[in-house]
Each structure stands twice: as C-alpha cells, then as structure tokens.
Design goal:
0% strand
Length: 471
C-alpha cells in the first residue's frame, strides 16, 4: 500500500501557515548561492554562460519539485525525502538520502557562517572571520530552539527583507542599464555591452556545465517544502500553490538578478571575495547603498542558515522516528523542537571555523561544492521515488485521477529530472576547484549504505537470538 501512517500523532507541531511555507521555500533558496557564489559562476562561465546555467538549473529544480509535489501532497510527513525513498526504493537508499540531505545543510551551514564572517570582517577589519562565525552559530541556534512558530515567523521576516531588496535591486539595476541612473566607469548607458565584450562564452561553452554544481547549490532549499509539510496546516492546498509558483520565482529572482549583475559588472571582476550585488550598488554611486546591500546579504545568509538548521534537524528527527538511528534524536522538548537533533546539526557550523587556518574564500568554495553535490543526489532520489510511487500506485489498482496533485507528463518528468541531476554530478569531475567534493561525498554515501546494512544485520541477529530463547 502507498499510504503512510497518520502524521497527526507526530510530536511535532502543525503550526506553519501558507505565508510561512511560501517564505521558507523562498528563503531557503535565496542565500549565499545567489548573493555570493553567483559571482564565482559569472567569473567562470561569463555573463551569457551564467544565464544559461541558471536557466538549466531552474528547469532541473522545477522538474524535481513537480515530482516532490505528488509525493508530498499524498503523504505529507516531516523528512519526506527519505520516507518516500525508504518505501519505494529501499530502506538503505532512504537512510542514505536522509543523511545526505542532513550533510547538504550541515555543510551549507559552514559556508553560510563563513560568508557572514567575511561580511562582518569587511565592516570590522580588525576582527577575525571565525569569531563572527561563533557568534552567528549561537544566535541561530537560539532562534531555532524556541519553537517551530518562532522559527517560522523569524524566517518569514528574514525572507521578506531579502525579497524586497532583490526586487529593488532589479528595478534600480534596470534603470542603470538603460542610463536613467549614471554608472561610474560608463560615459553612456551600459545596456548589455558586458554580455558580449569578450565573446558569448569567454572561457568556452564547457564552462557552463562546469558551474552547474554551484548553480544547483544556489537552488538548494526549494525542496524545503517537503521537509516542512509535516508541520504545515492544510498541506493539500498550501503545497501545490507553492510548487506552481516555483519556476516563476526562480526566474524573477535569480535570472533577473544575474541579468542586472552581468550587464553592469565586467565578468572578470566577479568572484566570492565580495558580493556582486554590493559591487553593482557601489558602481551606481547611491550613498551608503553598498553598506545597505551588505546588510541585506547578511540577512539573506542568516535566513538561509536558519532554514538549514531547521531542515537538517528535522531530517535527523525523521530518521529516529523511523527507528533508523538512536531514539534520542527523536526526542522533542515541550515546544515541539527536536532539541538533540538541533544540537548535533549545529556542530556543522563548526566547519566555518576552518577559516581560521585556511583562507575563507577557499573554505567557502569547497563547502559549496560538497553541499551542492549532496543535494543533487537527493534530487535524484526524489525523482526516482516519484517514478516508483506512481508505478506502485497504478499496480495496486488505484486511479491516477484520484491524486490531488499529479506530476505531469509521467514518466518523462521524473526520468528527465533524474538524468539532468546525474549529469550535474558528472560535470564536477572536470572542474578542479569543485572536484574535491567527490572525494568527500562518494565515501560518505558508501559509508551510509555500509553502516545501515551492518546495523540491520546486527539487529536481525539479536531478534533471531531473542526468538530462539523465547521458544
């Protein structure tokens, strides 16, 4: 059967509203992937190549979200990804997907805190990046520890600030592109001269695909609606509405922003040492605009890390709830927060402290690569789970028309999503800056499978011995 157990018995609280879920799904996406690592992508692929990479990434994410929508509306449970994979692919895959997603956000915490530390150091040069990392780790842990509703409200306002800022950025940037607002270094309207100044693909067409992992990292977080579904009121109405606007949101916020940045900043000046958003505002010459934008970027980073702590801790809770890891991770406090899981996940932020011995920019790129690769593998699992779910649903004699949300063009959508994600993983081999992600992620995946089946073997042996003694 494709039904899951009643989630109303869950100790987690269904206190999130439609506005919370909308902003969480948006807030989880808009972080350093857009505000900082977009500079790396532009520097590597050039303006046109970056736009193409983000367009491809948008399509990949939307296909994955269509797959996730069918599963989540039918079975709204916290930790949805690994629950679906466990049921329709296999328990070993479900266990691995859960830990991979936990790794995605735990490592992402390190990159987010590193980026936050870089911004604070630009304001306070005498301070160290790692000291600010410690401060933000404690701050966000406290926000998540209060309650689910408190987290949701905090994230709603965090996300609102950066959404408004991006809209203003695109509008002001458009005025600068067409010469309404003067730009330093330009005697006339820049229009789109930067797009073709050094050719369509200054580092070759292949650079578009080499940057896909950074692009996928930028889009990671869209799938948060699946994690939050178990704590969302009326998921059957809220989730489809959120998913249907995914592609539009990605195009407006990501493609719109990248277009403005690429038009106003020479691609060679972009990088991860400073946000390209700040570079644009500094070039426009609006008083204190760069400082204000740096504040917005900092808010976006904290928002993304806030969502990451939530998502990763819920994934550990879900694993414990499914009896795949010790039950201590499934314990929640009186406010409905899985406190032990939250504490363990917070240690991921400690990765940012590596910046005390290794250049922060290097640390950031490596952490982005690992997180991006892990989330793409999770997306592959979501597509495969939907493919297997639909087959099982039909085989049991059910009518597809009864599904309240259906993935269109089945089986083309899940197959296309799986293949495109797989190709993103392959391309990382050809980028020396990101290749290191494979050396960490592949052994981690192997360890997860080995650990799960060894542990299950031990459990099964104990059950056999207990049965033999009882008989």
């Amino acid at each position: 059967m494709v039904e899951t157990k009643n989630t109303n018995d869950s100790p987690l609280k269904r206190t999130m509203k439609s506005r919370h879920l909308f902003m969480i799904s948006l807030g989880g996406v808009i972080g350093t992937g857009l505000f900082l690592s977009s500079g790396y992508t532009i520097n590597q692929a050039g303006p046109i190549g970056t736009l193409l990479a983000y367009l491809i990434g948008s399509v990949i994410v939307y296909l994955v979200m269509l797959c996730l929508g069918e599963l989540t509306v039918k079975m709204p449970v916290t930790g949805s990804f690994h629950t679906y994979a466990t049921k329709f692919i296999g328990p070993g895959t479900g266990f691995t997907m859960a830990l991979l997603y936990w790794l995605t956000w735990t490592v992402a915490l390190g990159s987010e805190f590193t980026a936050a530390g870089l911004i604070m150091q630009s304001w306070f040069p005498a301070t160290s990046v790692w000291a600010w990392c410690v401060f933000f780790i404690v701050f966000l842990f406290s926000l998540n520890a209060f309650s689910v509703r408190f987290f949701a409200e905090t994230e709603f306002w965090f996300s609102s600030i950066k959404v408004i800022a991006i809209i203003l950025f695109i509008l002001i940037g458009a005025l600068a592109i067409f010469g309404v607002i003067p730009m330093s270094g330009y005697t006339e309207a820049p229009l789109f001269s930067n797009f073709v100044k050094d050719g369509l693909f200054p580092n070759g067409f292949g650079a578009v695909f080499l940057t896909m992992l950074a692009v996928n990292f930028a889009f990671s977080g869209t799938e948060l609606i699946g994690v939050a579904s178990g704590e969302t009121a009326d998921p059957e109405k809220v989730i489809p509405k959120t998913i249907h606007t995914t592609l539009i949101r990605l195009i407006i916020f990501f493609i719109g922003s990248i277009t403005v940045i690429s038009a106003l900043i020479p691609w060679k000046q972009a990088g991860v040492d400073q946000s390209p958003f700040v570079l644009v505002f500094n070039s426009i010459g609006i008083p204190y605009a760069g400082t204000i934008m740096n504040f917005v970027v900092l808010t976006a980073i904290l928002s993304c890390a806030n969502s990451g702590l939530y998502a990763a801790s819920r994934m550990l809770w879900s694993l414990s709830n499914e009896k795949m890891i010790p039950k201590t991770f499934g314990k929640v406090n009186k406010r409905g927060v899985p406190f032990t899981a939250l504490i363990v996940t917070t240690f991921g932020g400690v990765l940012s402290l590596i910046s005390s011995v290794i250049p922060a920019q290097t640390v950031y790129i490596v952490l982005v690569s690992i997180s991006g690769l892990a989330v793409v593998i999770v997306w592959m699992g979501i597509a495969a789970s939907q493919f297997m779910f639909r087959r099982s649903y039909i085989k049991e004699g059910n009518d597809v028309k009864d599904l309240k949300f259906r993935t269109p063009l089945y089986p083309i959508v899940p197959i296309a999503a799986f293949i495109l994600c797989f190709l993103s993983c392959i391309f990382v081999v050809f980028d020396p800056a990101q290749r290191m992600a494979l050396f960490y992620t592949i052994p981690f995946v192997a360890f997860c499978y080995i650990f799960y089946y060894v542990r299950q073997g031990i459990i099964n042996k104990k059950k056999i011995r207990y049965t033999e003694k009882a008989s």
